[in-house]
Structures are given as structure tokens and as C-alpha cells.
Amino acid sequence: MSIEASSTGRGGAEGQLIGERVRPRSAGYMIGSALVLGIALFCMLLFIFLFLRRKPDSGTRIWVLNHTPDQVVIYNPHDGVAEKKFQVADGLRGLTFSRDGASAYIFNVVDVVNKFTKVDTATYLKQESVEVDGVPQGIGTFPDDREVAVITGSKTTGEAGGFDVLSMVERSTADPTKPRRMWRVRDLQITHKIAVSDSGDRIYLLDAKSEYLTIYDYINQTVDKEINLHGAAEQFLYPRAGDYYYISVLQHNAIYQFSKKDDAITGAYIYSYADPEKSFHNIKLRYMDIDSEGRYLFATCYEAKSVAIWELGNPDFAREAKDVIMPVGPEQKGYVWSDVTYYLPALRFGLKGGYSERLNYIAGGERIAVDPAGAFLALNDDEGAVYVYELFEVMKTLRRRDPVPEIAPPTRNLPVLEPHLIITDLVRTGSGDVEIRDLQIARPRVRRQGAATETAEDLQAWNH
User: Fold this and answer.
1) How far apart are CA 396 and CA 443, in angstroms?
2) What is the dihedral of CA 409, 415, 421, 425, to 10 degrees?
């Protein structure tokens, strides 16, 4: 007896033929098939999305000058990938950004013809090579980027005995291949650091063999004033943000804060009081930077293998000069300014050791840079690794910790913050040598593809 199958076509689905019979498909079979097909399509779409999605990218880039070999390496701090590597010239010495962040000035101390190079920070293309009369060893940028102040050294000894102010828009009438020289200062000892004021009317100069900060009046082209630091300066920071600039003096174990308005010393930032149980307490402060709002000062202490952060002007961390006890040693004067307020850090933290290339090594921090966009903190160690921290996480740690002790504990007792990532492709292997000559974070000029999802409120949240 045959089975009629005419009813199976009413639901829109064909039955399965078995001999001369047709068995209708169940509703569960149809639902299961649709579910499997839907999951397969979802997985395919998810894979395509993950593969093709735009990665968050704020446009921030870390610029590293690696001396061995002489390369400029530009990293994306989001993923640690080297976005660009290029060679400018032998003997890379330093890096300076223009005030608007559009250009980078890279200078070197070894070249057949002494030049510095201007590079576009968005495209990494060379804009100009500028020949100078001497070995370029430092550059101060003017607010309008129409002029630069360049430390120039002897072509035979390399010692920098002065500086030139050069026009970036006018050529020399005597030699059109060179920029027009606006001013020249010579007969100095060993010119060390140079900077230009926000108004462009003053030039600041540090001499490695002098205890004075010399301030030049550029408009009248004369010396305006000299300030006795009572010790040779190591580093000079004239930031775009804030009302102050900073000078570190190794012999004092301190970073001094100066007013941009009148050049008065308004504060001293120290890592720790001297430890009375140690005859020699080496806690020098060298490299430093501030955040984009000029509220926090960051510095590395190489000997303590740590980083210190000060909240600028916070009275909770202020100490009167009469109560401050500074270390005294072979290279330490223990000098204290009697009329200056001293500040202890709001946070000290150690560096994370034990990355794969150096399993048992705890690094000493060297150069340090803060992201102008407020997202990252970067520093390098003495082995060539670059540590990248999310600034938001660092500031959260600072807020929830108790005030630090006046005498810094041993490095092993410091908190260790987990970095966002550690870039180790420059770390030396075997008997190789690595020397990072400079490390800075460029101001995001172009929002590249995959612009960051962080909003301005996210980037500034830690300040509130």
C-alpha cells in the first residue's frame, strides 16, 4: 500500500525519497540546519572582523636614537612594533622636536660635512639637511620654527665652544647653500645644553665646565644674566607645558625648578633624604620629563634602578630646607638652598626585570619621556630595552599609595609596576653593544588609520 506524500510539500520543504516513499523532514532538523549555518556565518564574519578591524592608534610614536648601529627607530607604543627605521648619519647625538610637533631635528657628531637633519614627524620623510660651521651637538627651537639655536663644536676636538642662531627660511648671501646666520656666540668652554624661551627672546645655555646657567637676551644679542647653580648641571628641560623649566645637578642629587617668567628658583625635587646608616648613598637624578599639563615631574634614578614621580607644588610632599639632609660623598656636595622649598616624590617604583633576553637582570633606568597626548610613559634601560607604561595605570597607583618615606627603601622593597609592554629588539646579545642616545615621544600630528578610541576625557581622567 502506497503512502500519499502530497501533504509534505505544504511547509515549503521537500521530503527525502526512500524507494517510492517520501519521509517528511522534521521541524527540529530544519532548525538545527539553520542554527549550524548561522553559527558558521557568524564565525566567518567574526574572523573577517578581527583580521581586518582597525587597531586603536592614537598617533603617538616613540622615537629612539640607537647609536649602534646609528639608526632612528620609531615605535608604535600600542603594540611595540617598529614602524620605521632609517639612518640619518653616523654618530647620532640627539633629537629635538619643533614647538608644533611637525618636525624633528636630528643631529650627529660624525660626518664628512657637519649637518643636522629636519624630518617630518607624520611621514618620516627628510625635509632638509642643514650644513653648519662645526659639529652640531644640541638644538634649541624657536616658537615659530623660523630659527634654531645650534650648539657647534670644534671639527678637530669636538668640544663645543659656542652656538649659532640660524634662519630656517633665509639663505646666506655669501653661501646660498647655507642658512643665514642671525647670531654667533663663541669663547665658551664646553657648551652642554641649550634651549629657547616660549617668547623666543631668551636663550638658555649650560656649560659642562661651569656652575652657571647663562641666559642670553636674543633681541639685543647680549648676556642678560647668570645664575650660580653651585654645581655642574647635567640635564635641562624646557617643556612646552607649564610655567617652569628644570635643571638637574648631579652633585646635589636634585632637580631644580625655575620660573619661566623671571628665572627664579621656585623648588627643588629630591629622591630621598640621606640614609644615616650608609656612608655613601648614591641617588643621582639625571633624565626627566613632565606631563602635558605640567602637573607631574618624572625622573629616573639609575643607581636605585627606579623611577620617581613628584606632584609639582603639592604641600603634602614639601619640606623646609632646614630639615633636608642630603648625601655627602666623593661626587656629592650635599648642597641645600636655604630659601628653597624641597619636595619628596609622590611615588617611587622599580623597573621590572627578567624579560626573556635578560632573565636575571634588573635594569637601571636612563632616559624617560611622557606622551604629550597623555597616554603613555616610556623609558629605556642600560641594556637597550624600552619600557612602555600606560600613564593612566601609573597615576592610579600613585593615588592609592600612602605617602613615601623620606629615606628611600632599598630597590628590592620598592613596588614594581607592570609595564604595558617591553620592547627588546635593541637589547644587546652576546658581546654586542647598545647605546641609546635619545628617547622622546612625538606629539601626535596625524590621526592615522584606526584612530584611538580614547576620548579627551579618558586621557585626562587621572587628573580629576
Assistant:
1) 23
2) 30
Enumerate residues 6+ apart whose C-beta is below 8 A from 432. Answer: 68
Dump strand ranges (E) for 132-287: 135-141, 147-153, 160-171, 179-185, 191-196, 202-207, 212-217, 222-228, 233-237, 244-249, 254-259, 265-270
* Longest pairwise C-alpha distance within the chain: 120
Q: What length is written for the chain? A: 464
In angstroms, the CA 117 to CA 47 distance is 44
The closest of 123, 117, 81 to 102, measured between CA atoms, is 123
Side-chain half-sphere exposure of 350, counting CA atoms within 13 A: 18
Task: State residue 457's pLDDT score.
Answer: 42
116 strand-pairing partners? 107, 130
Task: Write the pLDDT tens digit of every residue in 2-30.
Answer: 444 444 444 444 555 555 555 556 666 67
DSSP one-letter code for 417: P
Residue 38: which H helix or E strand, with range?
A: helix 27-52
Reduced to 3 states (helix: H, G, I; strand: E, B; else coil), residue 437 is strand
Cell of 231: 654645581
Residues 6 or more apart whose CB falls under 8 angstroms from that of 74 comprise 61, 62, 63, 64, 82, 83, 84, 85, 124
Cα separations in angstroms, 355 against 63, 232, 368, 425: 22, 36, 19, 12
Closest CA to 159 of 171, 151, 167: 151
The residues pairing with 417 across neighbouring beta strands, listed in sequence order, are none
Check residue 15 and give its pLDDT.
Answer: 54
Q: Report all structural domains of the chain as residue ranges with CATH numbers, in order of start.
A: 60-88+243-464 (2.40.128.630), 90-228 (2.130.10.10)
Q: Where do the H-state alpha helices sit in 107-215?
A: none
CA distances from 392 to 389, 395, 420 (A): 9, 5, 11
Q: Which residue has the cell 618615606?
A: 405
The total of other beta-carbon atoms located within 10 Å of residue 451's CB is: 14
Which letter does DSSP use for residue 46 in this model?
A: H
Question: Which residue stretches of the chain have pLDDT < 50?
Answer: 1-13, 447-464
Sort residue 354 into left (φ over 0), alpha (ψ -120 to 50) or beta: left
Which of 432, 195, 227, 177 minimizes the C-alpha distance to 340?
227
Q: Is 227 exposed, middle or buried (0-12, 13-18, 19+ CB in 10 A)?
A: middle
pTM above 0.85, yes or no: no
